[in-house]
Hints:
By secondary structure, this protein is mostly helical. The protein contains five helices and two strands; from the N terminus they run αααββαα. It starts with a helix and ends with a helix. The mean pLDDT is 88.
Amino acid sequence: LSNAELLHIDAKNNVQLSTIALNNVMGQPLETQVQPGSMPDTLNGPQAQSSPDDLNTLVQRATENRPELKSMQYRVEAGEDGVKLAKSGWYPQIYLTGNYYYSRPNQRILPTEDRFSDTWDIGVTASLDLWNWGTTMHQTQQAQAQLAQAQDALGQLRDGITLEVTQNYLTLHQSRERIGVSQQTVKQAEENYRVTNEKFRLGVALNSDLLDAEASLLQAKWNYIQSLVDYELAQARLQKSIGL
């Protein structure tokens, strides 16, 4: 009983610490009371729920939803534009210019008159740098190297996200299987306790045997509850890894 009370005190303290940490992450007063959005179903367990999507679908959703992957894709697109900009030094530069004047007197009109007059002009200019000491080539190589670096980083990030989703997906299925085994263990422990209690009533079992059977039943129920909690956590980690 004393050990159980100590565990209960630790559990209450862990709840308070977790609530404070959650409030700190959400930026609200630390004393705010938080009500969980979901509770483990101790009657049916997650077997009554629909199974998660297949792994390929989850990975695809993660690649579409994860913000860091979108950010890296933008960096790759920026790198591609940088290569195009660097290569533009190999081609002629064409400029279109235009001017409009409205002045008194307008010096562009001869003979000059003391009145407001407007004039305009438009022109096209083309230039080609024939000798730049290899600047364009080096700038292009630098831009291509930066693009390759961004593409490698994007590939590594995709591989990391795929690995994370796969690990959480397998952990979720493992948790579901553990719940089934824990349920069966509880049923066996209940039957063992029933049989031992009947033997004790008939005087063919010791008091210690009954206490052992009761302890085994409590441990089986504890393992079942823990497996439900592990399943809830595995679900949360999987949803986080796919960007939900």
